From TrEMBL:
The chain crosses the membrane at residues 42-60, 67-86, 92-110. The keyword Cell membrane applies. It is found in: Cell membrane. Pfam families: Multi_Drug_Res. It is a multi-pass membrane protein. InterPro entries: EmrE-like, Small_drug/metabolite_transptr, Small_multidrug_res. This is SMR family transporter. Belongs to the drug/metabolite transporter (DMT) superfamily. Small multidrug resistance (SMR) (TC 2.A.7.1) family. Keywords: Cell membrane, Membrane, Signal, Transmembrane, Transmembrane helix, Transport. The keyword DNA repair does not apply. It comes from Achromobacter seleniivolatilans. SUPFAM superfamilies: Multidrug resistance efflux transporter EmrE. Residues 1-22 form the signal peptide.
Length: 112
């Protein structure tokens, strides 16, 4: 169950990052939206980070910190990488793919 909490924590981190990216994506010179529309992505990010913190705390009850943190961060990095790939919003170069592979290898080695 601890690994499920880590996956959920990483997913919440991805959701928060995507919300923050969306919040900063409004074009320069655009007419300002209502205050509620401007605040929504930020509030969604805060909520996602808070929920992710709770899931991470649950995972730490059963896992060592030296395993849980790198694994949760790797899940978040992989999730953001996949978001960028699927959304087409970001370019995925060979160097980025190599970096993702190295992160995965590092997490594998830490877990042994």
């Amino acid at each position: 169950m601890a690994y499920l909490w880590l996956v959920l924590s990483g997913a919440c981190s991805v959701a928060a990052s995507v919300a923050l990216k969306a919040a900063g994506a409004s074009p320069a010179g655009a007419l300002p939206a209502s205050l509620a529309a401007q605040a929504f992505p930020y509030l969604a990010a805060i909520g996602a980070y808070g929920l992710g913190f709770g899931f991470y705390a649950l995972a730490l009850r059963q896992l060592d910190l030296s395993l849980a943190y790198p694994l949760m961060v790797a899940i978040a990095i992989a999730g953001v990488f996949i978001y960028g790939l699927l959304s087409g919003a970001e370019s995925i170069s060979g160097m980025r793919m190599a970096g993702a592979a190295l992160i995965a290898a590092g997490v594998f080695l830490i877990s042994k």
